[in-house]
């Protein structure tokens, strides 16, 4: 499904980037921040779970979780190049029948998607200006938990990203990277009935796992 966001993401996350990511994944396995998401999801102790990976890139999260935790996955991505590589890799791993690939801005198609056990957003909120809409949409699809990574709110990350955005502006490229306020992201998720159960930090990235409060 075409969208404005898709055009921008297709330009930013194109074929060369996707191929380079796949090469890294095959050589070294999941990136460090993705490992934190995988560990967080595995800590829930789920089996045969359903998964929704928003902005899943080359599909690392479902490639990995379909080995033990998940039985089916949806991968919604605004980049057609990433989706193509993710589909080929899923085929190579024998997971093709278990993954539904959707080319769209997730916020445009959210109402058409079923609920799942776990929603993941690995380095995605930082690509999207309206983090409230994105997180609200993600929450509405999660029965059990959401795990996400985002840039840490530190002075050095803010400085580097504002330099990157300055050059993006110079090149007339509309893509921007955002350091969204962590407490406001948490407020959105809390309002949707999710509470933070763990947070882990790397130099650049932070990972938080949110779980749905039990209904009593
Ligand atoms: C920095 S990449 C991260 C890819 C992958 N999750 C990873 O960590 O390697 C951001 C991804 O999010 C996707 N994306 C950003 N906003 C999106 C949206 N609103 N709906 C769907 N995909 C989105 C982009 O197309 C891209 O694949």
Please provide a written account of the structure.
With 216 residues, this protein is of the alpha/beta class. Helices cover 44% and strands 24% of the residues. The chain contains nine helices and seven strands, in the order αααβαβαβαβαβααββ. Strands 3-2-1-4-5-7-6 form a seven-stranded mixed sheet, sandwiched between helices. Helix 5 links the parallel strand 2 and strand 3 (99-103). Helix 7 packs parallel to helix 9 (182-191). The radius of gyration is 16 Å and the shape is globular. The model has no long low-confidence stretch (mean pLDDT 94). S-adenosylmethionine binds next to helix 1, strand 2 and helix 6.
Give the SSE layout.
Layout: H1 4-12, H2 15-28, H3 32-42, E1 49-54, H4 60-65, E2 70-77, H5 80-93, E3 99-103, H6 106-109, E4 116-122, H7 131-140, E5 142-151, H8 155-170, H9 182-191, E6 194-201, E7 205-212
Parallel strand pairs: 1-2, 1-4, 2-3, 4-5
Antiparallel strand pairs: 5-7, 6-7
As residue ranges, the low-confidence spans are none
Biggest sheet: strand arrangement: 3-2-1-4-5-7-6
**Share of β-strand residues:** 15-25%
Structural class: alpha/beta
* Main beta-sheet strand count, sense and barrel state: 7 strands, mixed
Instruction: Name the helicity range.
Output: 40-55%
Global outline: globular
Number of continuous helical runs: 9
